[in-house]
């Protein structure tokens, strides 16, 4: 007898398809812009706006979620419209080829990530209501694992396409695949059974309710998040051009780096999920921050781009742990009816850092060598580790309760 899919299965499936679509865009859009001749300053401005809108748009999503009872439909609408932008990019590349307008591509990309970001905290609250607190770390690890598998498949495939097809046909096929993955994500969300109920004061949405006061612990964590993402985004206009132009790598090698990162990250998910369940999200976040801090320094010291594959192993492990711990931290310290708001605050802090970082990096690059900027980024990331220690939760700081929807 065949087992029926439940909400957990659909959420993991959605993670696979959304990871595939997102990885395609995140891994290759900057490379596409560089191939079209975008300069460092313009690249810095784009990455700043991209980081801000990707994360800060979640605040708008948390506000809407409190007034809309059908969270499933809202999430599907924002994600579906956002990923439709990938199809538009594919069509433009197919029709206009090398003559495509980079500003137009940038405008479409920014609109896409904004729409997707609106639905992100709402989807997170659906997951939180579906999975019990003690199993949440392992479940998010499974979902991230599915997302990482999709990212690895697309990274390897697109890297091969870029080697076999002339520019920009490889990018055209890549964005067509991203759009198809977006359809898969949309269908998985619409298949959820418990995402459409009207939230109550005990659920994650508290539709129509008033906001309470955000805890000081969460604000301190938000400060640490800003510092970390400022240091992470500082290298955005620096690292890819540095690898391509200074170290002499090819665009397909960027795809190989992305695949390495994705494969290692997905292999590390189950490990980090068990660590979150056993030691808590804060411990995992702290350890991951140290690993993340080493990456810019390693790139600054490398004599050849081939070493980057080893650095991406470290990156995959560290960022996988941070992503899992960061998401669970906000859910642990948030009152159940404020989960969307707390997760969006953490995302907004990351967005502000991701906005300021590339602008600062582009400005520094005009007066400093790329290696110097990379060293600075490593120091800033490490300082985030010191700041986050002020946000260590105590026994009374966990506001988690049993989920309202239960297991589907």
Structure explained in plain terms:
The structure is a single chain. This protein has 408 residues and is mainly α. 76% of the residues lie in helices and 0% in strands. It is built from 13 helices and no strands. Helix 3 (71-96) runs antiparallel to helix 6 (169-190), helix 9 (251-279) runs antiparallel to helix 10 (281-301) and helix 9 packs parallel to helix 11. The protein is globular and about 50 Å long. Residues 196-210 and 399-408 have low confidence and may be disordered.
Number of helical segments?
Answer: 13
Which structural category do the helix and sheet elements fall into?
A: mainly alpha
Number of strands: 0
Shape: globular
Largest sheet: none
Radius of gyration: 20 Å
- Detail the poorly predicted runs: 196-210, 399-408
Strand content: under 5%
């Amino acid at each position: 007898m065949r087992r029926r899919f439940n909400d957990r299965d659909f959420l993991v499936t959605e993670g696979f398809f959304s990871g595939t679509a997102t990885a395609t865009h995140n891994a290759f859009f900057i490379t596409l812009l560089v191939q079209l001749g975008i300069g460092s300053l313009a690249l810095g401005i784009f990455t700043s706006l991209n980081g801000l809108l990707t994360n800060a748009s979640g605040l708008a999503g948390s506000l809407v979620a409190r007034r809309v009872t059908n969270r499933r439909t809202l999430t599907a609408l924002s994600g579906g419209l956002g990923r439709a932008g990938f199809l538009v990019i594919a069509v433009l590349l197919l029709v206009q080829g090398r003559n495509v307008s980079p500003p137009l591509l940038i405008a479409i990309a920014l609109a896409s990530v904004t729409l997707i970001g609106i639905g992100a905290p709402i989807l997170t609250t659906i997951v939180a209501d579906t999975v019990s607190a003690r199993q949440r770390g392992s479940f998010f690890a499974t979902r991230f694992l599915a997302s990482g598998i999709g990212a690895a498949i697309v990274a390897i495939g697109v890297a091969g396409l870029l080697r076999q097809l002339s520019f920009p046909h490889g990018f055209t096929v890549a964005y067509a695949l991203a759009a198809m993955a977006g359809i898969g994500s949309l269908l998985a969300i619409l298949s959820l059974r418990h995402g459409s109920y009207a939230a109550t004061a005990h659920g994650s949405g508290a539709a129509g309710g008033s906001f309470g006061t955000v805890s000081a612990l969460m604000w301190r964590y938000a400060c640490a998040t800003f510092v970390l993402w400022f240091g992470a985004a500082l290298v955005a206009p620096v690292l890819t051009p540095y690898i391509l132009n200074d170290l002499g790598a090819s665009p397909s090698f960027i795809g190989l780096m992305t695949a390495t990162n994705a494969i290692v990250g997905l292999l590390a998910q189950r490990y980090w999920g068990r660590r979150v369940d056993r030691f808590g999200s804060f411990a995992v976040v702290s350890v991951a921050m140290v690993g993340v801090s080493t990456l810019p320094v390693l790139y600054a010291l490398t004599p050849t781009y081939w070493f980057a594959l080893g650095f991406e192993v470290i990156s995959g492990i560290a960022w996988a742990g941070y992503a899992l711990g960061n998401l669970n931290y906000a859910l642990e310290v948030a009152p159940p009816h404020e989960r969307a708001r707390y997760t969006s605050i953490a995302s907004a802090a990351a967005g502000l850092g991701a906005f300021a970082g590339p602008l600062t990096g582009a400005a520094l690059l005009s007066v400093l060598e790329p290696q110097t900027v990379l060293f600075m980024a490593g120091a800033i990331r490490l300082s985030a580790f010191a700041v986050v220690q002020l946000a260590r939760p105590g026994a009374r700081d966990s506001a988690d309760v049993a989920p309202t929807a239960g297991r589907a």
